[in-house]
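2024-03-11 09:14:02 DEBUG pipeline.ingest accepted 1 chain
2024-03-11 09:14:02 DEBUG pipeline.ingest length=248
2024-03-11 09:14:03 DEBUG pipeline.predict start
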Amino acid sequence: MASLKERYGQTLNLDKLTSYCPGCGHGVVTRLVAECIEELDIRERAISIVGIGCGGFSHHYMDIDAIEATHGRSASFAVGYKLARPDRIVFTYQGDGDTSAIGIGDTMHAANKGMPLTCIMVNNTVFGMTGGQMSPTTLEGQVTATTVNGRDCSWQGYPLLVPEMMRAMPGVKFLARETIGSPKQILHAKKSLKKAFECQIKGLGFAFVEMIVPCPTGLKMPPLKAYDWLRDRMIPYFQPQVFKDEVE
């Protein structure tokens, strides 16, 4: 079989300058998603539904069909598209604010439907694009643009654990939380992303992968410090693991 580069003249990743900030985790996740699509040879069937936020730039760097959904509604757009075109491989790519704030209802109902969809939530614990405000996943005590004294869970609530909220849903067939804190973790994250696509290819049901990444700009830290924060603060709370795997 001819390679993608032989068939299309280039790989799925576009050779262009990125708008992601230095150290942003979105660049790594976008690359992993593109690699999974290439290796599974689903480029001609894949459709990306992106949310509002930095995650909404992901399709700018992949030679792939895409729809820009309204804020928080990517999962609902994906449901509609999959119903209309069940032959397509439909996946969402959203940030934690888009997925778990205005979009939490859409996300949970899509998961509960159990349709063959692949949803990716890139969690950096802030609304990165709009200035680093508190999101539903902001950690307790974390300083943001809207929690200048740190998040106070006594009245601002606790950081949402989205995969844990889906775990009991019978239609969810693959469910994982991964991170990109080290090369080993990046390789493991790719395995989960690939399985999330395979879950849809096999028509098994809903697949969801949360990716824990740093946002140096939102954290107001240089990239290396932001990765230290990821390892020291984010990973102990958002513990990477595979919750459900019915793909094999």
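2024-03-11 09:14:41 DEBUG pipeline.report The chain has one domain: 22-245.
2024-03-11 09:14:41 DEBUG pipeline.predict end
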